[in-house]
Amino acid sequence: MLRHELQPGKLIAGLVLVLAGILYAGDAGGAWEIPWFVVIPLVTGGLCLAGAVALLTGRVRRRRQGGRTGADLA
Q: What is the DSSP code (8-state) at residue 36?
């Protein structure tokens, strides 16, 4: 049994923010040169994608549960 349910929206948001951090860390360490404006669309697009995935996941879960309530699941 799982300890918690998978939340793909949070997973995507976390991955995008980790990627942005890696890009800035590489730039700060001198491994590569990243223009300042690259991370803004990356983070904004990633958060929008994460929100859309979270909305879709919520709708799918509600549809799968059907008419059951929290008392029925216990």
A: T
Q: How many CB atoms lie within 10 A of CB 50?
A: 21
**pTM of the prediction?**
0.78
Judge residue 70's burial from the number of C-beta atoms within 10 Å of its C-beta, 0-12 exposed, 13-18 middle, 19 or more buried.
Answer: exposed
Closest alpha carbon to 61 in 8, 14, 11, 10: 8
Distance CA 70, CA 54 (A): 20
Question: Are 64 and 30 spatial neighbours (Cβ–Cβ below 8 Å)?
Answer: no
Boundaries of every domain in the chain: 9-59
pLDDT tens sequence across 1-60: 778 888 999 999 999 999 999 999 999 999 999 998 999 999 999 999 999 999 999 999
